[in-house]
Specification:
Blueprint: H1 16-33, E1 37-39, E2 44-46, H2 47-54, E3 64-66, E4 72-75, H3 80-90, E5 98-107, E6 121-130, H4 136-154, E7 158-164, H5 165-174, H6 180-188, H7 195-205, H8 209-222, H9 228-241, H10 245-263, E8 270-272, E9 286-292, E10 301-305, H11 309-312, E11 320-326, H12 327-336, E12 349-353, H13 359-371, E13 376-378, H14 385-394, E14 399-403, E15 412-417, E16 423-427, H15 431-434
Parallel strand pairs: 1-5, 7-8, 12-13, 12-14
Antiparallel strand pairs: 2-4, 3-4, 5-6, 6-11, 7-9, 9-10, 10-11, 14-15, 15-16
């Protein structure tokens, strides 16, 4: 009998598992540099946890089952509910602002599209900031996300599109939308539908043909998004058209956020995009997504501000902003640009025993190097020296230490630079210091 992974699931053999580990390592380092601390949450939660946040609709995408105690439970379909649950439990003692990184496997029962970055099991990298009311937290979050993407190799490949739900709601009211949920759905699909389908979707929301044409023209003018200075003028025109007070407050938030991101040196990758509304109802103001600059891909990350979710879970009023980076779309982005890592960082040293009598000495040297903090290995199969050197090259080692060469000075080994082929002798008792 032959076994294969279930549909929508993947194996990651070497070196792929190593490449994914390297991506996680880079993300952790970048997040720590940005002041985030790491949080771990369970893979299985009470199904009610997801119902509180997303309602009954979540059941369609969640892997649910009844445990042996008769309780409805679910595999984690996202990380945010668990993160908020942890915060609520710690709210009285947690210093604010709390900046948390979460790296977790998640599962969704949806139609797999591996080529489009959709699988049933995937990893999410979440960044969340609790306790800051102003857009300073959104700016800090997006700056951290930019650092993360740059550090994993995506510098120059992505753009961050920003909007505010209050502005989108005000725009809907300005054009007569009676059903804001349907208005949001139409706006969200603007780039994916024809002009006639867009007009039909807006009609269901209560927007007439003239308003639909005007909105389509304005969204087309925006194109792939407006840089901060161009966004300022564009938003000013909407204010002049008669956006209501709530929407004007959203415009001011966007202006402050774009100015902060400009000051942080991120204007080259930040764009205002009124078609970014995010489908989840719990977002309260700022929303954002990152997309590849070229091609038609799914978003690399998405998120926004959700200032009432902590209260929904029984905690004190707490402003929160967060985002999630998906591993599958991130991999597609990096692979498409030829920037996916080859695997884990290469081994530094391969110790080559020229004959089987030298194997104990090779093992001893490897152990010394490892204790000194040097990554090292040797061949337990006692193969020929040429085979061992090929193995060292395959594992991308920086150098080989040749043990037992007859022409070497007694008490010395020969170090070979595997990039240049240059050789030199090293004293046996100085190997760790030479690394």
């Amino acid at each position: 009998m032959t076994f294969t992974p279930l549909r929508g699931f993947r194996d990651y053999p070497p070196p792929e598992a190593g490449a994914r580990s390297e991506i996680r390592r880079r993300i952790r380092l970048a997040a720590r540099r940005a002041g985030f601390t790491e949080l771990e949450t369970p893979a299985v939660e009470s199904f009610e946890l997801y119902q509180v946040k997303s309602g009954e609709e979540i059941a369609k995408q969640t892997w649910t089952f009844t445990d042996k105690g008769g309780r409805p439970v679910a595999l984690a379909s996202e990380t945010t509910p668990s993160v908020v649950r942890v915060f609520v439990d710690r709210a009285r003692s947690e210093p604010l602002p709390a900046k948390w990184l979460t790296i977790a496997k998640t599962w969704r029962y949806e139609e797999p599209q591996v080529g489009a970055g959709r699988t049933r099991e995937f990893t999410q990298f979440n960044l969340d900031i609790f306790g800051v009311t102003g857009v300073e937290a959104d700016a800090d979050l997006l700056a951290a996300a930019s650092l993360v993407l740059d550090e994993v190799g995506a510098a120059g490949l992505y753009a961050i599109r920003i909007n505010d739900r209050a502005v989108a709601e005000g725009l809907g009211r300005l054009y007569g939308a009676a059903d804001l949920d349907r208005f949001f759905q139409a706006v969200d699909r603007f780039r994916k539908t024809s002009a006639s389908d867009f007009a039909s979707a807006l009609a269901l929301a209560g927007v007439g043909p003239t308003g639909a044409r005007e909105l389509a023209g304005q969204f087309t003018e925006v194109g792939a998004g407006l840089a901060p200075q161009a966004a300022e003028a564009f938003l000013g025109r909407w204010v002049d058209r008669g956006l209501d007070l709530a929407a004007r407050k959203g415009v001011e938030r966007l202006r402050r956020l774009l100015a902060l991101l400009d000051a942080a040196g991120l204007a080259d990758r930040v764009r205002f995009d009124p078609t970014v509304v995010r489908g989840l109802a719990y977002y309260t103001s700022t929303v954002f997504e990152a997309f590849a600059r070229t091609g038609d891909s799914r978003s690399v990350f998405g998120g926004g501000r959700y200032d009432h979710l902590v209260e929904l879970f029984g905690g004190p009023p707490t402003p929160v902003t967060g985002l999630a980076i998906g591993d599958q779309t991130l991999e597609l982005l990096l692979r498409g640009a030829g920037r996916w890592p080859e695997g884990e960082p290469p081994l530094d040293t391969y110790v080559v025993a020229v004959d089987s009598a030298q194997i104990p000495e090779a093992f001893a040297i490897v152990s010394e190097l490892r204790r000194a903090g040097v990554s090292a290995d040797c061949d337990p199969l006692a193969r020929s020296m040429s085979r061992q050197l090929k193995e060292a090259a395959r594992r991308r080692c920086r150098r080989a230490l040749l043990v037992g060469l007859k022409e070497a000075t007694p008490g010395a080994v020969v170090e070979r630079d595997l990039a240049t082929g240059a050789q030199r002798e090293l004293a046996r008792d100085a190997l760790a210091r030479s690394a």
